[in-house]
Amino acid sequence: MPAYLPDITDFEYVALAPWPSIDCPQQDWIMAYHSVETWLNTQVGPHWVRWAWSTVGSQTSRDCCVRFRYAPDRTLFLLRWAG
After folding, report:
1. pTM of the shown model
2. Cα–chain-centroid distance for residue 33?
3. Is 52 within a domain?
4. Helix%, strand%, coil% for the chain, nearest 5
5. By the 8 A CB rule, do 19 and 77 touch?
6. Nearest Cα to 82, choosing from 16, 1, 24?
7. Domain range holding 70?
8. Residue 5 lies in a domain
9. Does residue 28 fall inside a structural domain?
10. Contact (Cβ atoms closer than 8 angstroms) between residue 82 and residue 37
11. What is the pLDDT of residues 20-73, one digit of tens each?
12. Is 72 a member of any domain?
């Protein structure tokens, strides 16, 4: 997973959610990553423009951490993925 790069983005809204469970042997982390990234790009907007991956605040590898430019995008993400 790409790390958050503060010199590229200054997104202040951070969200943590569990990675989705995917039933796909040996590819579960790839499919989970792809599922979240695809959803973000279609529902929130382009990567590095409206959102960016982050490691800030993540306590375990089970946490998906994303930074957002706008608070409503963070709220939408949490409604969908914080399950």
Report:
1. 0.83
2. 8
3. yes
4. 35, 20, 50
5. no
6. 16
7. 13-81
8. no
9. yes
10. no
11. 887 766 667 888 899 999 999 999 999 999 999 987 766 677 889 999 999 999
12. yes
